[in-house]
Amino acid sequence: MANDTQITIVGNLTGDVELRFTPNGAAVANFTIASTPRVFERSSGEWKEGETLFLRASVWREAAENVAETLRKGMRVIAQGNLKSRSYETKEGARRTSMELEVLEIGPSLRFASANVNRNQRSGGQQGGNYGNQQQGGFQQQSQAQPNTDPWTQNAGGNYNWNQQGGNDEEIPF
Fold first, then answer.
1. Deepest of 50, 52, 62, 126, by most Cβ within 10 A of its Cβ?
2. CATH topology for 5-40+49-111?
3. What are the backbone dihedrals phi and psi of residue 41, each rounded to the nearest 5 degrees, phi first?
């Protein structure tokens, strides 16, 4: 939505991802991200940690299954999405509001780790250029007769091999 508050958060997962399915079969993954700011104090010459922000997050459909399969407790992640407020009433009748992140994009942080990325085959959906819009079908599938020009594969069209030690001098194709 145009008026949603979009944020990006970097932090660690406080527990393993909880994967559930709605009665209609849609997957939803829920998890909590803990983000603790650190500030260097010149006077003491030390790093000081601020108060930790714990943010509940959810992601839907195929991305939910990918998140549950990939991410584990303690992993450092980068998540981007829409900040939502949810109001509820406690058992005692008190009115409360919590902030939650509706995740649009998420992945492991590569600041202190490395990762191997495997692109999943898209299932269902309509054909034709709906890049990044999961609700409308996603990527258009290539036919088997076309050469593979996907930079995420091990040898994309014979020109790139991103898994080689030391990389290569080719320009990134996107």
1. 62
2. OB fold (Dihydrolipoamide Acetyltransferase, E2P) (2.40.50)
3. -95, 115
**DSSP code per residue over 30-45:** EEEEEE--EEEETTTT
The pLDDT tens digits for 104-118 are 999 999 998 888 888
pLDDT, tens only, 28-83 = 999 999 999 998 999 999 999 999 999 999 999 999 999 999 999 999 999 999 99
| Average confidence (pLDDT) over 164-170 | 44
3-state secondary structure of 69: helix
Helix intervals (H) in 36-81: 61-70
Tokens of 119: 């692109």
The CA-atom distances, in angstroms, between 38 and each of 77, 153, 169, 172 are 17, 37, 37, 34
Angle 100-54-14 from CA coordinates, rounded to 5°: 110
Q: Is the dihedral of CA 94, 30, 51, 84 positive or negative?
A: negative
Contact 17, 79 (CB under 8 A): no
- Cβ atoms of 161 and 173 within 8 Å: the answer is no
SS3 state of residue 149: coil
The conformation of residue 2, written as its DSSP 8-state character, comes to T
Tokens representing 148 are 């593979």
Tokens 């601020």 belong to which residue?
A: 50
